[in-house]
């Protein structure tokens, strides 16, 4: 595939965060961009408003005429999350089109560029967004393909004037093995996606392969304690090469000092909250230093970083009510979010609403979810969001609920949950999950505010 020849792009599953970034990228290049997704979301609405054609019915008749015969000017991209029996997917396959996964296209785009790739079972979205913001804010510049909506720019794709590109490297379906970065960052390698990998050791093998794909002379940066070597370690208050020390909260903001043995940056104020984000920032700083960003510019950029939509995002922040929304959907992500909320608001009663994501993940990590959700004062569980999966017999939200040691726990439907929040008005609310719980954020906000 030659990028310069592409005139038309069709994306099957265009509403995904990664796919929508590619849609915006090719539209920015002047291509005709169309796509299919099964669900109307704020993101598909934004793409439509930007001029991108989207259909919501999986019918081959909905494909525009200009996409009905294969040629070198037409690119078809699909996400592995699309069902194999999709009518649109099979039309393109049966009509002789060559189909590309999102990860393959990302690999081709980044091939000739200085690539900073951030991988990890959690932490990768915020870390990659921090790096992109540091490079933009400092004047170093970059392009970026991100796994979340970067609040400073209200988009998931950035266009730069140089050859540096920041890429979120996704381990799902081994997608990140299409990348050959100059700087690779690995934030975590916890067991996840066991429906794909089978067991934790296979997931770790995939990360080791990713780390081995560095370009000659490249740099590996990874969190202290991961089973990697020949790289640059980082951690918070640990014996790593790059360290965040003197971590503290002052007037509601997180502060820390950075030192990697060569560069010290004292008194860094974080524009976002969370102990886990201090650790993410440590990796981002080290990556920025490796491309010669000025330390003072890094400090300024981290102070102005507004975070990523649905990553420890404040929905309400008043003296009476705190409402935070987070994408956490793995036990360790939940632990990080709940621990950070506890540290920020130790005197407030914490209510957590959690929507489990995937039947397989619920089955594989029910014990971990139960343990971490028991850290709250009150937990409300919603039904499992199935995403790409069919139900598994015996796997329900009750599987987690029954294992929890917390007394104040409930399983509610969505509307029942909203009504409960309206009646009980919790002072500290945390919503977590990767499914469609984001659609409940505004109704919950209205319920808390009596709107």
Automatic annotation (TrEMBL):
Domain Mur ligase C-terminal: 310-408
Domain Mur ligase N-terminal catalytic, residue spans: 9-111
Reactions mediated catalytically: UDP-N-acetyl-alpha-D-muramate + L-alanine + ATP = UDP-N-acetyl-alpha-D-muramoyl-L-alanine + ADP + phosphate + H(+)
Keywords on record: ATP-binding, Cell cycle, Cell division, Cell shape, Cell wall biogenesis/degradation, Cytoplasm, Ligase, Membrane, Nucleotide-binding, Peptidoglycan synthesis, Transmembrane, Transmembrane helix
Pathway note: Cell wall biogenesis; peptidoglycan biosynthesis
GO cellular component: cytoplasm
Domain Mur ligase central: 118-288
Main location: cytoplasm
Enzyme Commission no: 6.3.2.8
Lineage: superkingdom: Bacteria
Keyword Cell membrane: no
Binding site for ATP: 120-126
UniProt-listed GO biological process terms: cell division; cell wall organization; peptidoglycan biosynthetic process; regulation of cell shape
Family: Belongs to the MurCDEF family.
General function of this protein: Cell wall formation.
Protein name, as recorded: UDP-N-acetylmuramate--L-alanine ligase
Source organism (scientific name): Mucilaginibacter achroorhodeus
Recorded name of the encoding gene: murC
């Amino acid at each position: 595939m030659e990028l310069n020849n592409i005139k038309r792009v069709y994306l099957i599953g265009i509403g995904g965060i990664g796919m929508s970034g590619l849609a915006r990228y090719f539209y920015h290049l002047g291509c005709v961009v169309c796509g299919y997704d099964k669900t109307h979301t704020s993101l598909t609405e934004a793409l439509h408003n930007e001029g991108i054609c989207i259909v919501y019915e999986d019918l081959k008749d909905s494909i525009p005429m200009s996409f009905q015969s294969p040629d070198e000017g037409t690119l078809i991209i699909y996400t592995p999350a699309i069902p194999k029996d999709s009518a649109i997917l099979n039309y393109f396959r049966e009509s002789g089109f060559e189909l590309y996964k999102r990860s393959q296209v990302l690999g081709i785009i980044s091939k000739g560029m200085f690539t900073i790739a951030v991988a990890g079972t959690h932490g990768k979205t915020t870390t990659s967004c921090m790096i992109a913001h540091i490079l933009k804010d400092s004047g170093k510049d970059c392009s970026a393909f991100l796994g979340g909506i970067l609040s400073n720019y209200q988009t998931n794709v950035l266009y730069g004037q140089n050859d540096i590109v920041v890429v979120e490297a996704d381990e799902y379906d081994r997608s990140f093995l299409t990348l050959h970065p100059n700087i690779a960052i690995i934030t975590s390698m916890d067991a996840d996606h066991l429906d794909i990998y089978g067991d934790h050791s296979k997931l770790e093998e995939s990360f080791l392969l990713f780390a081995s794909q560095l370009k000659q002379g490249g740099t590996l940066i990874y969190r202290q304690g991961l089973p990697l070597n020949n790289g640059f370690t980082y951690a918070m208050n640990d014996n790593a090469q790059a360290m965040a020390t003197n971590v503290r909260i002052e007037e509601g903001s997180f502060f820390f000092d950075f030192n990697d043995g060569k560069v010290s940056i004292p008194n860094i104020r974080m524009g976002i909250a969370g102990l886990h984000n201090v650790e993410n920032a440590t990796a981002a700083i080290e990556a920025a230093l490796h491309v010669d960003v000025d330390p003072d510019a890094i400090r300024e950029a981290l102070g102005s970083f507004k975070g990523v939509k649905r990553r420890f995002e404040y929905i309400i922040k008043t003296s009476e009510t705190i409402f935070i929304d987070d994408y956490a959907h793995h036990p360790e992500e939940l632990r990080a979010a709940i621990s950070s909320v506890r540290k920020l608001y130790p005197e407030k009663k914490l209510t957590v609403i959690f929507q489990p994501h995937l039947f397989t993940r619920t089955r594989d990590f029910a014990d971990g979810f139960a343990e971490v959700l028991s850290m709250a004062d009150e937990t409300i569980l919603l039904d499992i969001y199935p995403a790409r999966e069919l139900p598994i017999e015996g796997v329900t939200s009750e599987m987690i609920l029954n294992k929890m040691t917390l007394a104040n726990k409930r399983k509610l439907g969505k509307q029942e949950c909203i009504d409960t929040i309206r009646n009980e008005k919790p002072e500290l609310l945390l919503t977590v999950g990767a499914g469609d719980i984001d659609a409940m954020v505004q109704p919950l906000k209205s319920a808390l505010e009596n709107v």
